[in-house]
Specification:
Elements (H helix, E strand, L loop, with lengths): L1 E2 L15 H10 L6 E15 L13 E15 L3 E14 L10 E14 L3 E13 L20 E17 L3 E14 L8 E12 L6 E14 L3 E15 L4 E13 L8 E14 L2 E10 L2 E11 L3 E12 L1 H6 L4 E2 H9 L6 H15 L4 E2 L11 E13 L3 E14 L7 H4 L9 E14 L4 E14 L5 E14 L4 E14 L4 E15 L1
Parallel strand pairs: 1-2
Antiparallel strand pairs: 2-3, 2-25, 3-4, 4-5, 5-6, 6-7, 7-8, 8-9, 9-10, 10-11, 11-12, 12-13, 13-14, 14-15, 15-16, 16-19, 17-18, 19-20, 20-21, 21-22, 22-23, 23-24, 24-25
Helix pairs in contact: 3-4
């Protein structure tokens, strides 16, 4: 086995019940000639903030905050195993004693991998994640990459894991198919009000093979059963058949027909029905694609859109979806635009080597303070089924001396199931808060390379949330200005200014934070 970084780290040993078995199983399957990269890191920050707990003027507290962050990144790849994991421990120490509403520590991890058990037949995929999430869209937002991670206002830690063995088979030139079983779990720090749950699902996907030249088809059958510890069991069954007809080298017509059935306590009494759609897929070049459809399902008219364009110095993405979903399903299978994959497409022309390109992408995300995903609405906690309409747009630019990332979203969630399951989260007075929620958001980050070792950056984010039934609103704006400097191959320093301004009709208070921070990071 080749270890590209063999140094041992004296990091604390936190209990990661889902991450460690996943990592152990995947790494144990690695053959002797596999390449493994282990990268320990350590960051130390000193911050002064005039509102460490993001409270209103009457109860806010200023403080110096010392932040220590040991971390570990692992990449492992062979012919049969592909594994990636990141873990960070955040320790906070405050100059003021007994500060209310702040954290003393936090841990985050994200791991995913795949094992090729039997080549071209049997595979196993698995993932595990733990991160802080906003409890409601109407308050300080932990998902804001420019935000304050010390305050525990309106946040909780959400842990999820997923394992999915599947069989794949090719039926000659006729078709290929995948039969998949999935077991996943979602666990939160507020299990008394947001029920912890597990789910079991089975799906079958069959796609036409190369024997069909101008006409293609696909079939999907899926069932999922969810066991919620506090709010009972629910299930979903979905069937969808698709057809596409190629009318030219770059254009194909598409059509779908299906049936959906859900088992939950519905507000309107309807939980099942047929669906159909018609549209087209246009691919004028390898750098440009457009897919669009319009149709109808049992909740009304619907549609979808997926557009992508790449040039030498930019990447553009635009998408629209309309689907029945839940908060837990978005924790296990997020549908946001992945920041790393978008930047990987952007840097592919200037950095052909995939390993160097991955390092450049990770460095850019850290320096610019970008979130793991772009253009994503806040996935607030709710135990209800929802219809979500989501429009997402993102673009990234890479010029000679600078780069930029822009993203925006607009979403509307309409509750489909009874509000009784959310009474613990919202209380009786705010029971209708999540009946229908609109969200808007925009994020912009700009990085200017002052020299080979130094960069200046600026990032801005703005979010809005409105409850259509109660007419309550919330907003948050944040600004981050900073300088970074690389002192050596593995040592990086930065200074930054941060400002957050927000208000909420739900909490009936405004909050403002101004902060300055200095950070030193070492990668071993």
């Amino acid at each position: 086995m080749i270890i590209t970084t063999a140094k041992r780290s004296r990091l604390p040993r936190p209990q990661y019940p889902a991450l460690l078995p996943l990592a152990a199983a995947l790494l144990a399957a690695l053959p002797a000639h596999a390449e493994v990269t282990v990268t320990p890191s350590f960051s130390l920050s000193e911050t002064y903030t005039d509102n460490v707990n993001l409270r209103g003027d009457a109860t806010k507290r200023s403080s110096f905050v010392t932040e220590a962050v040991p971390g570990l990144d692992v990449l492992a790849k062979s012919a049969r195993v592909d594994f990636a994991a990141k873990a960070r421990l955040y320790y906070f120490d405050y100059s003021e004693d007994n500060v209310p509403g702040v954290r003393s520590s936090q841990h985050q991890y994200d791991a995913s991998g795949r094992i090729n058990v039997v080549d071209q037949l049997f595979y196993v995929e698995a993932s595990a994640e733990s991160s802080a999430r906003s409890i409601t869209a109407f308050g300080p937002l932990v998902e804001d990459a420019n935000g304050n991670r010390y305050s525990d206002e309106n946040q909780t830690d959400v842990k999820s894991w997923r394992i999915s063995p599947y069989l794949t088979h090719r039926f000659g030139n006729f078709a290929s198919g995948i039969l998949r079983y999935t077991h996943d779990s979602v666990d939160t720090g507020v299990s008394s009000t947001f029920g912890d749950s597990t789910a079991d699902g089975v799906s079958l996907d069959v796609v036409s093979g190369p024997g069909f030249r101008n006409v293609g088809w696909n079939l999907r059958l899926a069932r999922q059963d969810v066991d919620n510890e506090r709010f009972g069991d629910t299930s979903s069954q979905n069937a969808l058949a698709g057809l596409n007809y190629r009318v030219g080298p770059t254009l194909a017509l598409t059509a779908t027909a299906g049936y959906d059935k859900y088992d939950y306590q519905a507000l309107g009494g309807r939980t099942s029905g047929a669906s159909w759609s018609g549209g087209f897929a246009w691919t004028p070049s390898p750098r440009t694609s457009l897919q669009m459809s319009v149709g109808r399902h049992y909740l009304g008219n619907t549609g979808s859109l997926a557009a992508l364009h790449r040039s030498r110095h930019s990447v553009w993405k635009l998408g629209y979806s309309d689907a029945v979903t839940t908060s837990r399903s978005q924790f296990t299978l997020p549908a946001a635009i992945d920041t790393a994959s978008m930047l990987d497409s952007l840097f592919s022309a200037s950095i052909p080597d995939p390993v160097l390109r991955r390092q450049a992408v990770e460095g850019y995300i850290r320096a610019a303070g970008l979130p793991p995903t772009l253009a994503d609405s806040i996935n607030y906690l709710t135990n209800r089924y929802m219809r979500q309409k989501l429009l997402q747009a993102s673009s990234a630019f890479n010029w000679r001396h600078s780069s930029a990332v822009l993203s925006a979203y607009a979403s509307e969630r309409t509750a489909l199931s009874s509000s009784e399951s959310d009474s613990g989260l919202l209380g009786s007075q705010l029971r209708a808060l999540n009946d229908s929620v609109r969200q808007y958001g925009v994020t912009a980050a700009y990085n200017y390379r002052l020299s080979a070792r130094s960069s200046a950056l600026a990032s801005l984010s703005a979010t809005r949330a409105r409850s259509l039934d109660t007419d309550l609103e919330s907003k948050q704006n944040s600004l981050r200005l900073g300088l970074t400097h690389r002192f050596g191959r593995s040592v990086r320093g930065s200074v930054e200014l941060r400002r957050i301004v927000g208000d909420s009709d739900v909490t009936r208070r405004d909050y403002t934070e101004n902060a300055v921070a200095a950070t030193l990071t070492v990668q071993l």
